UniProtKB/TrEMBL annotation, chains A, B:
This is DNA-binding transcriptional regulator, AcrR family. One of its GO terms (molecular function) is transcription cis-regulatory region binding. InterPro entries: Homeodomain-like_sf, HTH-type_TetR-like_transc_reg, HTH_TetR, Tet_transcr_reg_TetR-rel_C_sf, TetR_C. Pfam families: TetR_C_11 (PF16859), TetR_N (PF00440). It comes from the Bacteria.
């Protein structure tokens, strides 16, 4: 329980921590649909107004949790063995392994739901899966190594793969990771 | 106002129409976030139980509205001029023209939000944009015409493009249709 009557930076830091912790915990346990500012305030032991002073919406809270690695704490690195298609496949399989577990699929769908309400969540989602930092960087390496044409649209390829993962998670009844692997092989394998 | 006390197929058809009409209208006006079964029941002039007798959730209602063309009434055909890249670009520009308007972007984001709660919405979303019926069919034609390798993963290419459109709509602040056009040109233009 955070003491609402203390003031200054100490209280702010403690309350901020408690609020983000409570948000991440409730999000994991209940999903986005049932997440409310009131529920977060109760869980964190603060007043609703304390939350609204710093965050305009539950979507903004999820965006901040995501940016701080509180929701997807894994670092999805893309290796560089010199074989672009194989390296992307390694990354893809580690990301897709999240979706294999029911709670992982639900987490991703909840993040997509949050992204529809808050643009910051959308921006951080790709970041959390390593799309900007690792995947597009690795694709750039593939261009340098002559494995992809120099005019390959690097960012868009990364976003299309992220998009395919999202579409996959939305159609949860027909879960088929291999088909995305097939896609990336087609995109990144050397053409004869 | 539908008379709740009449019975038989006539009442069912009228009530069903009223409920789906009300769902589509409220969804357009308020978005998914504020859509409730209670609100739909009031708008349709029926009891909540009448709705729950036929649909388990608001997501299921949105899925049915989408499948019946009540939310995206346009038929997104992909032409066949013999130039695969140009044909896909024509289709893509007509789909992206929805996103250009603020209410179109909001509609798509609301549909994605609904898809996170109901798998049927996800399935019908690609269908409503012509992904399965027209886009993948056209890509298959491109393989027949020798414009794509025979091992091109047709469905996955369609879903990656749908995914890129979804990711685009989630990052609404940096709206840039041209980059998706660039992606499809890269995917479908003849390689030298």
């Amino acid at each position: 329980m955070v003491n609402e009557h203390r003031s200054g930076p100490v209280r702010s830091t403690a309350a901020r921590e408690a609020i983000l912790d409570a948000t991440a915990r409730l999000f994991h346990n209940q999903g986005y649909d049932r997440l409310t500012i009131q529920g977060i305030a109760k869980e964190a032991g603060v007043g609703k107004q304390t939350i609204y002073r710093w965050w305009p919406s539950r979507g903004a809270l999820i965006g901040e949790c995501l940016a701080e690695g509180r929701l997807i704490p894994v670092d999805f690195v893309v290796p560089d063995t010199g074989d672009l298609a194989a390296d992307v496949e390694t990354w893809l399989r580690s990301v897709l392994s999240i979706l294999e577990a029911p709670e992982g699929g639900a987490l991703l769908r909840s993040l997509v739901a949050a992204a529809t309400e808050d643009a910051g969540v959308g921006a951080h989602l790709g970041e959390s899966l390593g799309v900007e930092k690792y995947l597009t960087e690795r694709i750039r390496g593939g261009i340098r190594d002559g494995q992809l044409p120099t005019d390959a649209p690097v960012e868009q390829l990364g976003r299309a793969i992220l998009g395919a993962i999202i579409v996959e998670s939305l159609g949860r009844e027909h879960h088929d990771s291999e088909s995305i692997v097939h896609l990336t092989r087609f995109l990144f394998s050397p053409r004869s």
